[in-house]
Amino acid sequence: MNDESHRFDRAKPLSPAPRERAGDSKVRQILDGARAVFLRDGFDGASMNDIARAAGVSKGTLYVYFPSKEALFAANVRDDRRRQAEQMVPFASDATLVAALTTIGLNFMRELLAPSHIAQVRTVTAAAAKFPEIGTAFYEAGPDYGQRRLAAFLATRHDIAPPDCDLAAVDFVNLVQGTLMRRALFGSEVASDADIVETVKRGVESFLRLYPATDPTQ
Q: Structure pTM?
């Protein structure tokens, strides 16, 4: 079996996400090796031979866990995005609303603008034209999952009561990005941490004008 002849069958589901095999250290070993190759070579440039070498496994072992390069890439995307989305939202109940939103915004933007994330977004965008399931996996495990976690967080707060927490979460994510992500994607400008802090500050202020705190002291 070679990489060129092993084509992705759109009628079959992609390989299970790593979380569904959380107890298997071999999956983690393969995903870590694959991540390095995909970030270095992109989706089209990566080969299963290179991934097997980077992961320290045989090509046969690789196919036991992941039936295709597309399935492996999608699993890698899901793993990365879920772990990062989980780190975005703090659940410290004693934080003030402004402090909590600022922490969420800073965590989100620093992760969003990390060179490895920018590289992955570009790789996913290129691959999704041919394999839309990869784009769907990225969206569901990243932006959609993160926004749902943020909506759930907003619903737990006693000091803010947006009429629609899902919509409020989308507004928040858009507001704290400003133009920084677009600039990074097109290689126009690398944001400094001071840029991130200032953009998030303005985004939080704008968000609280849209969704005022029910407790002004917060």
A: 0.73
